[in-house]
Specification:
Blueprint: E1 2-3, E2 9-17, H1 24-33, E3 47-55, E4 58-66, H2 78-81, E5 86-92, H3 96-100, H4 102-112, E6 118-124, H5 136-146, E7 149-152, H6 161-180
Bound molecules: guanosine-5'-diphosphate and magnesium ion.
Amino acid sequence: MDSDEEGEEYLFKIVIIGDSAVGKSNLLSRYARNEFNLHSKATIGVEFQTRSIEIDGKEVKAQIWDTAGQERFRAVTSAYYRGAVGALIVYDITRHTTFESVKRWLEELNTHSDTTVAKMLVGNKCDLENIRDISVEEGKNLAEAEGLFFIETSALDSTNVKKAFEIVIREIYSNVSRKVL
Ligand code: GDP
Ligand code: MG
């Protein structure tokens, strides 16, 4: 978290984690640039994109990090998590193995974070209802058990993408304002 002299500007680091090909990069490009790629290739190396929203008349910047392919080799480093105050843990509603991995991602996140992290469990690809493998109920139950927010999204048709990120950003903001007060 950073704030300028007037305390009117905030910068929050948010990380996106989850198995390969669940749609992490597309969720980010949809939110930050309103773009979607059908055949996005994972490029190696960490990347982030920034988007600002206004809360209480203040500019709140989210610096959102993408694993950019590192997750394929289970090589997401501690530097990736450092300073993160928010996280989206993503699975693909059509692939059960990606849902089973959520706990491992959470453990990794918890191991590397030393502060309160606002966490959202994201069931992506909800446009693929006909080949759904994880019910909404299963997602909700896991989120409740682990103390996470929960949402289903589609980076393809934009369903709930903005909402997923902005619930997290607003939660971080409210965590921070509570601390400041
Ligand atoms: P990442 O490896 O988690 O970053 O996943 P990508 O964003 O690269 O997406 C992997 C594949 O899933 C790509 O072929 C995307 O086009 C596709 N994809 C991503 N999000 C969605 C979605 O919401 N719906 C559908 N149908 N496909 C998606
Ligand atoms: Mg990616």
